[in-house]
Design a protein that fits this description.
The complex is a heterodimer. By secondary structure, chain A is of the alpha+beta class. Chain A is about 35% helix and about 15% strand. Chain A is globular, with a radius of gyration of 15 Å. The N and C termini of chain A lie far apart (about 40 Å). Chain B is α+β, with helices and mostly antiparallel strands. Chain B folds into 3 domains: about 200 residues, Aldehyde oxidase/xanthine dehydrogenase, molybdopterin binding domain (Aldehyde Oxidoreductase, domain 4, 2-Layer Sandwich), CATH 3.30.365.10; about 150 residues, 2-Layer Sandwich (Aldehyde Oxidoreductase, domain 4), CATH 3.30.365; about 325 residues, Aldehyde oxidase/xanthine dehydrogenase, molybdopterin binding domain (Aldehyde Oxidoreductase, domain 4, 2-Layer Sandwich). In chain B, strand 1 and strand 2 form a beta hairpin. The N terminus of chain B is likely disordered. Classes of the chains: A alpha+beta, B alpha+beta. Chains A and B meet through helix 1, helix 2, helix 3, helix 4 and helix 5 of A and helix 6 and helix 19 of B.
Chain lengths: ~160, ~725
């Protein structure tokens, strides 16, 4: 049995050591907000935070998580996360939505480190996250909007 | 597709009370009405108003990102005068009678950018009917004339001060007579349609990870299935040894099915490990022998031979004889995978009553019938729970129902012992076929001494998408698949002598529609060649096109708008030292929507390039949700840029060479240009926006690169250096 810290809760799981964290999250623990897209750390749909750092859960063996704190889309919180989600909603970034958990996790990690990112910062931080609907134009705008929200220029409340 | 459409639109209305709910819907035929009358509480409806004041709009179309749920809800909520915040959207069950696509005949489905166009009248009437019944209920309860009752933002009111919510009156309204011809609004009175920003109905669930995709379904006792498919198109299973696979912890069963060998396990990881541990022997005698180079050579030979005539006016041979100048180019378009972010999947469970499916599908009733055929049951015994699709771009609209059929065969082969979630890996998805076909074009243009168009000859070579499907009957005539030549056979530019012909080689590589279908290649060939013609004539590319579009005012309309907004007549700002800059334009009509795009490109000294800015003008008729329209243009431009700049599927001896996003690259955020979208005001009936943003971008960028460097690009994806 492995002990995992997911979204602040400790879970015991019975999984082979080589099982990627992604499949433990999805198939064992029911955290299905984190998506499978490529299985090779190429698309970012599976991004979670591991000790606050964006991490590709599809390529991280569960045995390597150790005592690390995993945060999924279901558990992200704090000012950057709230700002990102509010900005995403305000600008209606999503289309099919499948990649957006990963996009939001990546954007949250970016803003936690750089509250006022430039376009170049955004392109660098988000280049590992593929969106086939190509919502990139709005992702860029929403990250700037989230930055403004964090600076207190707009509300971080989600609409019902 | 057939005359059902016209008859259906005159369908009768019916309503019934269900608890405190008002149910309004349409009955399409006398026979169906008679059969359905006793079951008038069944959810054959488009709107449900509950006593809790919720308004549920039932969507017959798939939401795959294109904004259909928001658009459908807007149409109905407009005529109902609902408050946008009280409106919810629910997926309709599969039912070709109640929920058919009115542009497709007796089939329920989403494609060809038709969701808004075919739902426009239907949902306006559904909303207006519900509104009239609420008004009638208020009139009865308040003892005032109906004409004195106002409805706004989900509230009914009367000058006397009386007020009620929809929920207050839902039960009473359900007992009111159903108006046969409810009065529709004058468009000038629209409050939701055309307004700048109605929030998407699927936004919140998709930003919190709560949205349900097929990949997320988990049923009690469910097993995940991963399938070993043949390594080459046309190969078949000879034998397999599952000994090692069955030793993988979590693997429960291994079964042979027509499309390969399925490993069923507790969870994806075990199923995949089991699949990878299979020992397989394939019979490759009927496998596709060619690789891409051989196919291209075969297709090139066909470019020299006359094909089936798709379009012919005037005397093309004579036009070329009398030409002062002839332009000629051959174009290459590779196979393309849809590569939606959600790899293909399907969940299915068999019980004594039939089969239940969880999936996001573009052709529910086609899949329903195909699944039923596997089990030997009736289509209506297959119920489909529609979920969001994580993209599709045409892939989940397969007349062959490949992946739902595969799931059905697995359930059947395991005698329905477990609910099954079939999951394709990214590699399975990319190698599984059903691509945008590989096409070659040859375009020859005859110009007079003044550069005027005398003749246009275009030959297209590529597999037919519709041949061999149920769509062949209406889509293929005299050897011409309309989707292979659309955009060329109906060339908008005025030319007295036009000939378009087509070769449709038959080949065992499965092909399918891919976001904007034929326009993905015809739009490119036509719009880059007309640009060459303008250049040869020494004319401005916008002015040259406009002079040939007298009979196509809507093409001209978006072209003028985009030129104005892009500052076409002002010089482009110079780049840094050594950089070349260029601006290019293209205009393409697809699915009844007209889109013009101007691309600004910077070419660096090392031959790399960046699309810096794109200005887009769109005329899709009445703009239902302007923000969704903008989003679809933005996304369509990004999707088209992937194909222009990066993506290609190639074959080696019938086997696909690509497997994942490292060797099938797609657009990433750093390459996304700045985009400005302008919507041309229109009072024409609304048409779709899911696809039409795609076709103009590749030619606009190619024309911009040509303007910057003088180099014309005839092969996709682009290679500059």
């Amino acid at each position: 049995m492995l002990k995992l810290s997911i979204n602040g809760k400790t879970h015991e799981v019975d999984a082979d050591a080589d099982t990627p964290l992604l499949w433990v999250l999805r198939d064992e623990l029911g955290y299905t907000g984190t998506k499978y897209g490529c299985g090779m750390a190429l698309c970012g749909a599976c991004a979670v935070l591991l000790n606050g750092q964006p991490t590709r859960s599809c390529s991280l063996p569960v045995s390597a998580v150790g005592k690390g704190k995993v945060t999924t889309i279901e558990g992200i919180s704090g000012a950057p996360a709230r700002a990102v989600q509010a900005a995403w909603q305000k600008l209606d970034v999503v289309q099919c939505g499948y990649c957006q958990s990963g996009q939001i996790v990546a954007a949250t990690a970016l803003l936690a480190q750089k509250p006022k990112p430039t376009n170049a910062d955004i392109d660098a931080a988000m280049s590992g996250n593929v969106c086939r609907c190509a919502t990139y134009h709005r992702i860029r705008a929403a990250i700037h909007e989230a930055s403004a929200i964090m600076a207190g220029k707009a509300s971080d409340k989600l609409e019902a | 597709m057939d005359k059902t459409v016209e008859i259906s639109r005159r369908g009768l209305l019916k309503a019934g009370a269900l608890g405190g709910m008002l149910v309004v819907g349409f009955q399409w035929s006398g026979k169906a009405r008679a059969a359905a009358m006793p079951a008038s509480l069944a959810p054959n409806a488009f709107v449900r108003i509950a006593s809790d004041n919720s308004v549920t709009i039932i969507a017959k179309h798939l939401e795959m990102g294109q904004g259909s749920y928001t658009g459908l809800a807007t149409i109905l909520a407009e005529e109902l005068d609902a408050d946008w915040r009280q409106v919810m959207v629910e997926a309709a069950p599969a039912d070709a009678k109640r929920y058919n696509n009115l542009m497709w005949g007796p089939t329920q489905g989403t494609g060809g950018s038709s969701a808004m166009a075919n739902s426009w009248k239907q949902l306006r009437q559904a909303g207006a009917t519900a509104r009239a019944m609420l008004v009638a209920a208020a009139a009865q309860q308040w003892q005032v004339p109906a004409a004195e009752i106002a409805v706004a933002q989900g509230k009914l009111s009367h000058a006397s001060g009386k007020q009620a919510s929809f929920g207050d009156l839902a039960a009473l309204a359900a007992t009111m007579e159903v108006p046969k011809e409810p009065k529709l609004k004058d468009p000038k009175d629209f409050k939701l349609i055309g307004k700048q920003k109605l929030p998407r109905k699927d936004s919140k669930d998709k930003i919190t990870g709560r949205a349900q995709f097929t990949q997320d379904v988990n049923l009690p006792g469910m097993l995940t299935a991963v399938v070993a498919h043949p390594p080459r198109f046309g190969a078949k299973l000879k034998s397999f040894d599952a000994t090692t696979a069955k030793q993988v912890k979590g693997v429960v069963e291994v079964v042979a099915i027509p499309s390969g060998v399925a490993v069923l396990a507790h969870g994806f990881w075990a199923a995949k490990k089991g699949r990878d541990a299979l020992k397989l022997e394939w019979d490759e005698t009927a496998a596709v022998p060619q690789g891409t180079p051989e196919l291209v050579a075969q297709y090139r030979a066909l470019l020299d031979q006359p094909g089936a005539v798709a379009s012919k006016t005037g005397d093309v041979v004579g036009a070329f004889k009398g030409a002062a100048k002839v332009l000629k180019a051959d174009y290459y378009f590779p196979y393309l995978a849809h590569a939606a972010m959600e790899p293909l999947n399907c969940v299915m469970r068999q019980d004594k009553d039939g089969v239940e499916v969880w999936n996001g599908e573009q052709m529910q009733t086609v899949d329903q019938a195909m699944i039923a055929s596997v089990f030997g049951i009736k289509p209506e015994q297959v119920s489909i729970n529609m979920l969001y699709a994580g993209g599709s771009f045409g892939r989940r609209a397969n007349p062959a129902s490949d992946y739902p059929m595969e799931c059905a065969h697995i359930v059947k082969a395991t005698a329905g012992r477990h609910p099954v979630k079939l999951v394709w890996t990214r590699e399975d998805d990319m190698r599984g076929g059903y691509y945008r076909p590989l096409y070659l074009h040859r375009v020859e243009v005859a110009l007079d001494a003044g550069g005027q168009l005398l003749g246009w000859r275009q030959r297209v070579v590529g597999q037919s998408i519709m041949t061999g499907t149920p769509f062949e009957a209406f889509g293929v005539k005299d050897g011409v698949d309309a989707t292979s030549v659309e955009g060329a056979s109906d060339l908008p530019y005025a030319v007295a002598n036009l000939q378009v012909d087509l070769h449709s080689p038959r080949l065992g590589v499965p092909v399918l529609w891919w976001r904007s279908v034929g326009h993905t290649h015809t739009g490119y060939a036509v719009e880059t060649m007309i640009d060459e013609a303008a250049k040869a004539a020494g004319r401005d590319p916008v002015a040259y096109r406009l002079a040939l579009l007298d009979k196509h005012p809507r093409h001209a309309g978006v072209l003028k708008l985009v030129a104005e907004k892009a500052g076409w007549n002002q010089p482009l700002k110079a780049g840094k030292k050594g950089e070349k800059r260029g601006r290019g334009v293209a205009v393409v009509e697809s699915f009844g929507t007209f889109v013009a795009e101007v691309a600004e490109v910077t070419v660096r000294p090392d031959g790399s390039y960046k699309v810096v800015r794109v200005v887009c003008a769109v005329d899709c008729g009445i703009a239902i949700n302007p923000d969704v329209i903008r989003a679809q243009m933005e996304g369509g431009i990004g999707f088209g840029l992937s194909a222009a700049m990066h993506s290609a599927i190639t074959l080696k001896a019938g086997a696909v060479e690509q497997s994942n996003f490292h060797d099938y690259p797609v657009l990433r955020i750093g390459e996304m240009p700045r985009i400005e979208v302008h919507i041309l005001p229109s009072d024409a009936a609304p048409r779709g926006v899911g696809e039409p943003g795609v076709p103009p971008i590749a030619p606009a960028v190619a024309n911009a690169i040509a303007a910057a460097t003088g180099k014309r690009l005839y092969d996709l994806p682009f290679k500059l250096s």
